[in-house]
Amino acid sequence: MDIRSLFGSNVEIISKLGTGLVGSQLYGSLRSLVLLKNGTTHSLTIVAYDDTLLDPAPFLERVFPVATRLVCEIRANEEDKLELASGDGTNQFAGKLFQAIEENANLSLTAEDFNWAVTLKPKIAMDVSVFVTSTTLKNVCVEETIDALEEAVDALSIQGDVMETTSYPTVASEPRETLVTQQMSLRKKDFTNTIRLKLFVGTYNVNGKSPTTSLSDWLSCDDEPPDMYAIGFQELYLSKEAYVFMDTPKEEEWLRTVLRGIHPKAKYRKVKLIRLVGIMLIVLVQERFAAYIRGVSVETVGTGFLGKMGNKGGVGVRFELHSTSVCIVNCHLAAQIKKCERRNQDYHDICTRMSFPPAKTIKDHDLVFWFGDLNYRLTGIEGLAAKNLLDTANYKDLIMFDQLREQQRIKRAFYGYQEGILNFQPTYKYDTGTDNWDSSEKNRAPAWTDRILWKADDVDQIVYRSHPSLRISDHKPVSSLFEIPIAAIDIVKYKKIYEEVMKHLDRLENDYLPQIAVSRTEIDFGTVRFLENKSNFLTISNTGQVPLQYKFINKLREENYSKPWLIIEPHTGFLMPGDYTEIQLEIYVDKRTAGKLSTGQDTLQDILVLHLEGGKDLFISVIGSYEPSCFGSSIGALVRLPQPIRDYSAEEVLILEKRHYHGEVDDWHENNRKSILAVPKEMWFLLDELTKQGTEKENLFELPGLGAEISVIRDILDTSMPDNLPGSIHSVGEALLVFLDALPEPVIPVRMYAEAMEASSTYLDVKKVVARLPGLHRRVFHHLVAFLRELLVHSLKNKLEARSLAAIFGSVLLRDGLHHHKITTAAYYQSEEKKKADFLLHFLTAPHWDWIE
């Protein structure tokens, strides 16, 4: 009997895949997966064959609409498990299913759209509404929807994820599954085959320009098409407002130009596009490999001013191709020849803060490619001497003066990363539209600012080059073609080794329990200061006879396994018998945590629970002593401390903070107002230094300072009454913003945030809000506005704009109290940031402005 007769003449069979049901006692084990289409909608069906009959008869067993509630999951049970053979047939079927999902991606589907599937009358009925929601499919992650078919592994279970109540038994508990996963990872080479793919990596700083010519000379310069593209841009958009606001039409312009410029001999699909202001990364893959990509996630890290402005920083995409994990990072580090240390700091900030769910960092991947405008320059050689060497193509001698190579050598940045031979002209700086070196007044020396690095084993770099024919920018684009190893699972070998691992664990579990030894159970960090990280190490040893999985777990009624000021790396791991590992524990008090420590709502004390899967829990005590700082202290407390904060005992400061927090101290209009300061003296010292040294300084509040200098400024403010402050004016500027951002109660109190946002559209309304501020907060606000207006008086020299200052300061003066949470949508974030800027902008641009007492 032909299966076509099961579906009727109006239904089109898109693809069919033969499979089998393991362990089934119902009708026999033969099954077929069949993808159907009727009109614009698709359904995935399972056809069974009653092979108890002499002539096995097919019948329709299940129907699953291809809609928002379709979920395919790998199961570890022996019932209801479909075996999929590895090969082209499975790959083609998976590809067709992907295509079906994408075709429905822009449709708003309802249960009625699948009435045709219901009329097929499968033996096991299914409520179609379970699979359909009122939303469109455009936001459904393909890699999550069809996880099992991508992997082509040996188990597939399909169900509705809301109303399905069937309980599927598993062969192992969660701890055992974790051990199995770890054991299998240790033997990965035994059940995988390596395939070699070509990856094209390109980077281009476009200097805010729009695309005016084809990019094919850059993106499709090789005879054969690459299997994947990773294309990075920097300075896509140069508006100062873009440092905070993400909107720009340049994204679509450059994306269209890229898609027109990639290799014409292959068809590609977009894996992901991610952008942070002017830093954009596009990852493409040939269609024939798309079915094997899963686990796609992205992250952005701003390292510009305050560590969050998007003019500098990095964007990352991670994914798995077959069973190889890949991380791709595009970055734009700090500019200027003297800012080498700041570039190193940007690199480390991206490494620390770029985290992909679930808790994966850049280094936790098999293949890492890091590229962009790294901005490292040539030092120790005059510009004319450098150009003379370039005239003779003497790159070998010139590279000796390269900052990046030196920082790698002394292990200050990019240690462990590889780079090919620089056998091409420096890519910066040119007169735009020409191949001539910079002839401007600054006459910048040439430099290899645009670089491509990688960290991985068995990667071959085929070519590393620049593309001087593209003259859109003052940079030249760079590209590299790699041959990379990708591990693909051999299903037969996988099943054999899986069985061996299971039998081995069975024997061990019958005879042994996990045992562990820790180097200490109490860790004392001593004195801890604001923005000063302190580290300690804990050694964990497996003293038992079986492999063990450990992890730090949440205590009862707590959301996290540690307090927010404590970082544990790694917080989970696996140890074979006799192995040991070092766990790094780091305390870092920042704006998120300083307020509660200053006001006594929290202390540097925590009990960590170290859990052994299948064993006992151990308890680790962490203690420290937080030294109060003006950074993280409240306005109300600071104005009542006429001497530096370290002249007072921690107990005295804490008592004052507690009284202020609980409203037990009077505000500006108290009877003894003469005994308190108009504004915190620390803020006054910062404003005074900026007024004396920075009013005519270009890029003030736009170029970040150095962390080390900001720490010195903090210590001086905490211990003395300085006449001047050390460090660059940019460090002083960032110190001011860090001070304001760390206030436990922002200048515009949290309780007035919603009112301020609502009033942000008119000057009259925002003046009313400021008039209602608590007296001390109103004084601080007016001092800051007066200072910013003074800066704008000198705008012809300092090049500052009211809008950019309003955006930068608005984000720290107005906070909703939820700044430590992720904003759910970019649109919401942009809307809030613009309202904050609008609120402050009224005061900076009003023709006549008076203090409001």
Give an overview in words.
With about 850 residues, this protein is α+β, with helices and mostly antiparallel strands. The chain is about 30% helix and about 25% strand. The protein contains 25 helices and 29 strands. The strands form seven sheets. It has a six-stranded mixed sheet. Strands 4-3-2-1-6 form a five-stranded antiparallel sheet. Strands 12-13-14-17-18 form a five-stranded mixed sheet. A hairpin with a 3-residue loop joins strand 15 (about 355) and strand 16. The longest helix has 21 residues, at about 490-510. Mean pLDDT is about 85; it is low at about 20-30, about 50-55, about 70-80, about 135-175, about 665-670 and about 820-825.
Q: What's the gist of this structure?
A:
The protein has 853 residues and is an alpha+beta fold.
Mean pLDDT equals 83
Helix content: 25-40%
Query: What class, by secondary structure content?
Result: alpha+beta
Instruction: Find the count of extended strands (DSSP E, 2+ residues).
Output: 29
> What is the oligomer described by this structure?
single chain
Approximate strand percentage: 15-25%
End-to-end Cα distance, whole Å, is: 91 Å
Radius of gyration: 31 Å
Biggest sheet, open or closed, and with what strands and sense? 6 strands, mixed
Discrete helix count: 25
